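Peptidoglycan-associated lipoprotein: structure tokens wanted.
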Amino acid sequence: MSFNRGHALRLALIATAAASVAACASRPKPSFPTTPPPAAQPAPPPAAPAPAPGPVAQGPLAGSEQDFVINIGDRAYFDFDSYSLRPDAQATVDGQAGWLRRYPAVRVRIEGNCDERGTREYNLALGARRANAVRDYLVSHGVTPDRITTVSYGKEKPIDPGTGDEADAKNRNGHTAIIGGAR
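Answer:
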């Protein structure tokens, strides 16, 4: 077998082709991203601040004696030597009747009071008529009578110990005192 130049050239070409194929086979194909990278997401908004606590309920507990005294009023005032409910007293006692209907377990005592003028006996009788006037008004506006008692203090328990018209006007009243069942 003779080794000539043509033969050597063919062997060299075959070797080059084999090396090329081997070189291509050993390299990994480059990969290019086929999808665009995701767009940058906007930063989430900052968390909303916690709501400020609401105002704390102030004032008396509903259905309590303080609720009755502060929000309704516990006294109905009378004119001199009278046991007729004045319009302003009727408004107060209307409020009392509504409140007492809302809280049916509450029991009250109506206390009739008078100013310092007049005899003790006369003022005890007038105080009883004032207490009964308030009681009758409450009953006529839906409060059951078994929840109400009355008493007359006459001029024995003035709310204003002073003298004069202003003190007398304060002392002529029917006081609705809660005696049980309130919160």
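Strands lie at 75-77, 107-113, 148-154, 173-180. Helices lie at 5-26, 65-72, 87-102, 120-140, 165-171.

Cheers.
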